[in-house]
Amino acid sequence: MDLILWRHAEAEFATGDMQDSDRKLTAKGLKQAAKMAFWLDSVLPDTCRILVSPAVRTRSTADALLEYGRKYKVMPELGIDATVREALLAANWPYSREPVMIVGHQPYLGEIVGELLGHPLHDYSVRKANVWWISQKQKETTDAETYLKAIMAPDLVLKS
After folding, report:
1. What is the SS3 assignment for 5?
2. Strand-strand pairing, 73-74 and 100-104
3. What count of other Cβ atoms lies within 10 Å of the Cβ of residue 145?
4. pTM
5. What confidence tens digit (pLDDT) does each residue in 144-156 have?
């Protein structure tokens, strides 16, 4: 199974009575999301399920994929305060037959990386707009092998 973790792009700071979940992307964040969507569309299998936190900034990040005809599902269990367990259950890890991408938040994205790569007490820093691609392959003679397949940042994407 492939699990792709995409942290939301840069968002505005909360001001006044604004709820954290209502924060919008900045102009820089919109550019980051567009670059990453361009790259993701070139590498994601057509069968990839895309699951998104209901927060405005994550939905806006995922909206960049709409240009490429990719749809997503908003899942309340992937909200700002989600746990590793909730996120992995939503993704059906490690049982999903299709690749799954979660568009979500720190700290749970970094905690998922730590859990799946064998460092459950270590929280990895998934930077804004970055993608971490984790893959698990079943070997015939051994247990499943989980490994980090790729990390991509928007400043590495060459978009023409």
Report:
1. strand
2. unpaired
3. 10
4. 0.95
5. 899 999 999 999 9
